[in-house]
Each structure stands twice: as C-alpha cells, then as structure tokens.
Amino acid sequence: MTYQSQIPVSEPAETLGDGLPPGTTLCNGQYTVETYLNSGGFGITYLARDSLGRRVVIKECFPNAICCRRGEDVRLRSRSYDMDFTRAVELFQKEARALAQLQHPNIVGVHQIFEANGTAYMALDFVEGTDLFDLLDQHPDALTPEAVRELAVLLLQALSYVHRNGILHRDISPDNILLDTMGTPVLIDFGAARQSATQASRVLSRVHTVKDGYSPQEFYITGSAQSRSSDLYALAATFVHLIEGSPPPNSSLRLAAVAEQRPDPFRPLSGRFPQHDPRLLAAIDRCLNLFSKDRLQSADEWLDVLAGRRPSLLAPDPVPVDPEIETKIAEMVAINRAAIAEDDVERVAPVKRAPRPDPEEAKRAAEREYWAILNEDPADWVRDAATEQPTEETASEEQAPPPPRRRRFLLSALLPWSGRGQRRALETNL
User: Tens of pLDDT along 307-329?
Assistant: First the structure.
C-alpha cells in the first residue's frame, strides 16, 4: 500500500491555499505554527513555537506539482501521482534522518521528524540573523577581504564534515547561508531529497531544482554524476557573488559556449581583485571549472590551498625548454660547482692547490648533472651541500613550534547584534 492510497483526491474546482494557517498545531500539540516563511517546489517552511515557547523552524514535505491542500490536509492532485508522492515523502524522511546525525556549529540542527496531515515534517533550529543575500543588499561593503576569507574557512570546514558523513548539500547559495547574531555562518536547506526525488520521478523531474549561476552543469542534466566537487562549484559561485557582486554566468550557458568553441563567459577572479587573498581567488577559479575532474576534489583540498599546505594554484604551467638549452645549463652548473669546490679547497689548504679538472671529466660530470636535474635526484645535491653546523640560536628557532593562530572572528564585527561580545572571548586554531 502506498503512502496516500487511502486519501481521497481533492476536487479540482476547489480554491486551495498552500500554507498552513497561523495557530495550526502539529505533532500532538508539540508545535504551533506562527507564520509562513517561504516555499519551493518541494516544501513549505514555517516559523513555529515548541511546547516550551522556543522558536523552531518547521519544514513540510509539499511537492506542489503533485499535491495541494484541503484544510490542513495534503491531497493528491491526481491518483496517478500516488507513487510519486510516496517516493518524495520517503526521500524527505531519509534526508531528515541523515541530517539529524550531524552535529556541527555551522550546520542547522534537526530536532525531530514526524508525520501529520498526510505528509512528513522536520523540526529544525531557528537561526536568528540574516542570510548573505540580505547582508549584501543592506550592507554591500560589509564583507571585507579578511571576513570573506574567514567565512570561506568556516564553511569549508562545515562542508568537509558534511561530506565525510556521506551527504551532499546540493543547494549552496547566499540565501542558504545564514549569519547568526554572533557572526557564525550556518548552512541551511539541504537539497539532497529534492535532487533524489527528481531523479526518481518522471513527474517531479519537471520541477526546477537548479539555481542559475550557482548550480554546476551536472545539475542540469538528468542522470549526471554528482560529487563533492559539485558542492564546491556552488560554494565557489557563492563567493564570486560576495566578491564581485553578482553570481557567475549559468553553467549551462557556459557549457554551450565551450561546445560551440566560443570563449567561456566566466571571467576568473585571479588578478582582478588584488585586495583579496590570491590563493582564495585561485581556488575559486579552479572550483568553477565546468567539468568535475578539473576542480578541486574536496573541501579539505581547498583548505590546504588556503593554508599553503598544497602547491600553489598560482604557479604557471611549465614551459618546454629546448634540449640544447638544458645541456648548456647542465654544463654551466657543473663548471660553477667545480669552481666553488676549488675555492673551498683553497680556503682550507691554500698550499695544496687542486689541479683543474680534466675536460673529459668535466663533460662526464656535466652529463651526470644533467640527468640529476631531470630526475630531481636530491642525493647529488646533498653531497655538495655545505656541512656548516647551525648555531644554537638557529637550532632553537627550528625546534620551537609555530605559535597558535587566533581567530579574530571578523564576521561578528560585521553585525551590530549584542551576541558579538561573547565571541571575542573565544580562541581557536584555523
């Protein structure tokens, strides 16, 4: 038996509203709806109070393409949608259970999952604050380069945690990132259930589930593989909006331009915003590659780039060198190193002057040096390295651990709310 096989179909002539009216109680009176917040193709969100008077967010599974409301109950628009609705509810509940296992300060918390009115609901944390869209609209100059970099670190740490738990967000954009009253960014509104539902149902696949400018090209093509780098594309597009003031061009349009051998309409950030961390800009550009294989593959990789633990993305591609030039360089290196060795011998024992090297031996040494350079063999360099012992002061500096970095919580300085002072007392390492 399917989920709504016993629910009567709504009369098509009825005029129905989508949202639950204020004062509606859910879960045996545990929650009382205060007001409608927003809605999309797959759900409606409400602000509510729990039985202790605390504010919570209630998210209702409501795929409006196949259902409508009569009174408080959810009804199918047609009996033919029974299986589609059942699948949507199952995926909604599956996602809610997965999110309920996540415990992270930068991820919205799920308190409870329950069924009512012929559909499913989840109760989530209410995050008091503003989303990045509103912040950009009201305070366009608030996000300084330092704050943008801190925001990137915090969101990448949260995204790394999400990915390690086997979940993709699939809907990262400025309106799904909130800043609470202490300046803490919080990821909300995961889109995993919506994506899965559109792939599982022919009817639901018609519902628009991408965000132009933020979704990677694989989100536009049904059945395309999605990975961690898909979330990184959306996060990079979000930072393009924060830095440049608007999102990048739609990835579907970019893909069409490349297919037609026209220039990619996206302009990389590197070199255009010198006030921002060049490593952050290079990572954003890398993650906005159209094809997944060309992006950074994990949030941890992105964090390593920002911390300098990975080779710089700013390094130019190696330029091919003529073999004759390489041979000349090798010969010059060999001659210079022989001259340095000769000078060292003269300083130690000036009376015993070493004879000049035989030309044939120098040629053989040049060949050995040439192959050592090509093979990047450090042993050939170690033998000739100076044996000078480090001083006590130098040795102590090398052994001393690096001082811990203090987070200054620049994001909290953007906001005038009272919780900011509590942040200043906290310290942590990046």
Answer: 988 776 754 444 444 455 555 54
CA dihedral 25, 27, 30, 31 (to 10 degrees): -50
185 closest CA partner among 422, 346, 426, 415: 415
Two tokens, residue 90: 């199952």
CB atoms within 10 A of CB 274: 9
Question: What does the alpha-carbon distance between residue 390 and residue 30 come to, in Å, rounded to a whole number?
Answer: 70
Closest Cα to residue 16, out of 78, 77, 60, 69?
69
For residue 345, the model assigns a pLDDT of 55
Q: Do 24 and 109 have their domain in common?
A: yes
Q: Are residues 1 and 59 in the same domain?
A: yes
Whole-prediction pTM value? 0.69
Residues 210 and 258 in one domain: yes
How far does CA 18 lie from the centroid of its chain? 33
Please give the distance of CA 131 from its chain centroid, rounded to a whole number. 17
Helical residues (DSSP H) of 180-249, grouped into ranges: 192-200, 228-244
**Burial (Cβ within 10 Å: 0-12, 13-18, ≥19) of residue 329:** middle
Count of domains for the chain: 3
| Shared-domain flag, residues 71 and 117 | yes
| 430 within a domain of the structure (yes/no) | no
Q: How many CA atoms lie within 13 A of 357 on its CB side?
A: 17
For the chain, give the mean pLDDT.
76
Residue carrying structure tokens 């009369």: 11
Indicate whether 404 belongs to any domain.
no
Instruction: Please say if the pLDDT value at position 143 is more than 50.
Output: yes
Q: Which residue intervals of 176-275 are DSSP H helices?
A: 192-200, 228-244, 251-259
Residue at token pair 């990915």:
163
Residues 191 and 203 in one domain: yes
